Amino acid sequence: MMAAPVLTHVKCADCPIRHRAVCARCNADELEELDTIKYYRSYEAGQPIVWSGDSMDFVGSVVSGVATLTQTMEDGRTQMVGLLLPSDFVGRPGRSGAAYNVVATNNVMMCCFRKKPFEEMMARTPHIAHRLLEMTLDELDAAREWMLVLGRKTAREKIASLLSIIARRDASLEKGPLDRLEFELPLTREAMADYLGLTLETVSRQISALKKSGVIELEGKRHIIVPDMSRLMDEAGDDSDGGFLG
Amino acid sequence: MMAAPVLTHVKCADCPIRHRAVCARCNADELEELDTIKYYRSYEAGQPIVWSGDSMDFVGSVVSGVATLTQTMEDGRTQMVGLLLPSDFVGRPGRSGAAYNVVATNNVMMCCFRKKPFEEMMARTPHIAHRLLEMTLDELDAAREWMLVLGRKTAREKIASLLSIIARRDASLEKGPLDRLEFELPLTREAMADYLGLTLETVSRQISALKKSGVIELEGKRHIIVPDMSRLMDEAGDDSDGGFLG
DNA sequence: CGGGAGGTTGACTATGTTCAAATGGGGTGG
DNA sequence: CCACCCCATTTGAACATAGTCAACCTCCCG
């Protein structure tokens, strides 16, 4: 059950997230230094990576897989507050305790930096600090977009919003025609519910309803086919353009 | 009606938010330089400061007053995504267009930095970049806490959460006994509704309900008295500690 | 073949919304 | 000074959306 957590050491220069993660702007010398303070570590599907309140001795990046960031109330109500994809950053430099639960939904590979040396390096390496600022601003924008979803959208719009986000992310990788997208849902119905502030029954019902309306098609439980992306985005209630800003 | 927008020039060293805003860590030389690229500007209650989608030629800090950050759907549904208090930062370095509406709810004084020179200065001044990163991480934490409120709390808990946040903020200024706090609400019922993802009628009803339960007392519509802060925090459903982290 | 996790569906209920009307305080003009 | 009006707010009654509780399905795995 408990996987052996120790791992291959990949040179930063060969890392698959090299150009998108917190190290994206580092030069060769800086990468060398990062190499000396990092280690890879894997987590199995379902395993906790960090527990809220625990002290963290590392910060790091998701290299592969998907993890969730969740907050929980005493009575068990749970809200997902972030979805961590490859290149996303985990942990807060300058803070000792974790504020959220981080759980692997897939098998996840993390690139972990020992906290102390990373903080020291960040303090004298603008390339890292600036990239982290940029990434944090992006996350803040995403969180605020999500606040609109949580606060003001109907159950059907919430599902459509989540599906568009996942679809658009995948579309940016495998290019293709604007219509007819397919993708695999990386989340259970319960995780979707926690993301959207719904119950899992409501998630299930709305997915069925979108299927009945022909907005999506299902193949199994997790494979989604979107015959017409603009139709899905209409259902999400978003501005038509997709909201890209300079 | 339209106020003359131009203003007094206050030296950074004398600025009321000097030690908390984006300039908090700057030394005397850096403040001198900031002085040359900034101007003060005032906005009357209700006036827009920035309109979503407009291009911005400045970034800046709230010096006094309260402003809201909101997002709006085509059909008019609106969600507040941030509440800007003195020392909070407005605008995103590196991006030309505004992503949200910023509206003054009070009379607001802004300290505006011309965008281009500010960005250039930030690129070579770690004191500014690091402080902005720290502030952005704090905002991200606040946004995520708010996601839990929006997604998982009942109307009564939402109101109690908002009141505790405002009460705690004011309490950190005027120290006093832990129980028996009073404060002025800086928001209309409608703004509270937009913050909480509710209708203004529900906000009104739940405030009446909290009053009937003795959790709060009202003096007029906007002046709130909290006889027992721990009682209010129980109603908010938060963990008892208040969630401070290193 | 049995067990379990994830998912679907149905019937009923509860919470918050909608629509509508009433209240109340502050300011303006006569 | 007072009548009036405007706006924020409160309150009520009917309604709708999503939640709850429960049964059942279906796939995978041992």
Overview of this structure, please?
Chain A folds into 2 domains: 12-148, Jelly Rolls, CATH 2.60.120; 153-236, Winged helix-like DNA-binding domain superfamily/Winged helix DNA-binding domain (Arc Repressor Mutant, subunit A). In chain A, helix 2 crosses helix 3 (126-152). In chain A, the strands form 3 sheets. Chain A has a 4-stranded antiparallel sheet. In chain A, strand 10 and strand 11 (223-226) form a beta hairpin. Chain A is an alpha+beta fold and 246 residues long. Residues 1-5 and 242-246 of chain A have low confidence and may be disordered. Chain A is built from 7 helices and 11 strands. The longest helix of chain A has 27 residues, at 126-152. Chains A and B meet through strand 5 and helix 3 of A and strand 5 and helix 3 of B. The structure holds a DNA duplex (30 and 30 nucleotides).
Poorly predicted ranges of chain A? 1-5, 242-246
Name of the level-1 CATH class of the largest domain in chain A: Mainly Beta
- C-alpha Rg of chain A (nearest Å): 19 Å
CATH topology annotation of the largest domain in chain A: Jelly Rolls
| Count of DSSP-assigned helices of chain A | 7
Task: Please describe the structure with a list of short key phrases separated by commas or semicolons.
homodimer, 246 residues, alpha+beta, 2 domains, four-stranded antiparallel β-sheet, globular, disordered N terminus, DNA-binding
